[in-house]
Amino acid sequence: MRAAFCLEPRKTELREIPDPKPASGEVVVRVHNCGICGSDLHFFSGQFPPPPVCPGHEIAGEVAEVGPGVGNVRAGDLVVVEPLVTCRQCNFCLSGNYQLCPELRVLGNMVHGGFADYVRVPASAVFPLPAKLDMAVAALTEPLAVAVHGLRLVPVCAGDRVAVLGAGTIGLMSVAAARASGASEVWVTARYAHQAEAARRLGATRVFTGSAAYVELADAGSQRPPDVVVETVGGQADTLEQALPLVRRGGTVVVLGLFTSMPALNGILLVIKEIRIVGSMTYGRTIAGADFERALDILSRRAQDFASIVTHRYPLEQIQAAFSTAADKHSGAIKVSVSPVA
Description:
Strand content: 25-35%
Number of strands: 19
Structural class: alpha/beta
Number of helices: 12
CATH superfamily of the largest domain: Medium-chain alcohol dehydrogenases, catalytic domain
Radius of gyration: 20 Å
Largest sheet: 7 strands, mixed
């Protein structure tokens, strides 16, 4: 089968590798769409070392083959993939917090991911799709589940005021997740006009744009600060430092962005305001269900709104162009989707 690899910064290539075969409790999924994530762009831009495996973890496709003992899906089922491989035996796994498993392996980082014709995953990691859901949109379940999980850890409740720093994919997913959690107001900062438009479509009640976005947001919240601030930028941004003066006393800052350098933090303000900082790692499960299931429910109810997030689509053979577009801040890209299916 074909599989993409990142060899060095700004360079990808397709290779032929053996087709995967499912072991007991596993399935092989024929990939229909795989989205390019901000974390993929970290290694494409040279901020992280490229993975030794085929990247890609925002995956939607069709079950091609099932291994022995699989009963939850069958060949031909359309599914999204939760891209985590865990031991399923430790206390974290048994409690539903499998994202904290010491043996955690992430598709596209430690095992082959979705920029390929096929991907092999645990049967427990696939979730059936509702009928007629566009597969590129369905692949947004993964970043939406990241936001759902982070806001669950807070937790965001009905009537809360939420401020989201950043309007990339995770920021936009956080807007949608906050509204679905009952937040009465959701404010967001956006660098570009196309991000601002998408944020409004997904439920943002106020959008702050341009170079003065944070200053205007802080001024607007000075009389009634937000209960929750969601940091979604990461990288080398100063958004974590910005979040502390913004959130109300006794409020919560949840960190979803992946930082590539040590962020600054005002320890005095952290103590004086009794701010709670919550780190959030991917997604998990509670007695009420998996974060992926919650995300898929939100997505399927508002499929048309989420469709606006998928701004560019490329075939797998144009993987280099797809990554270049996703990395270009002036391309108008929000989510670039790659499809191995002709």
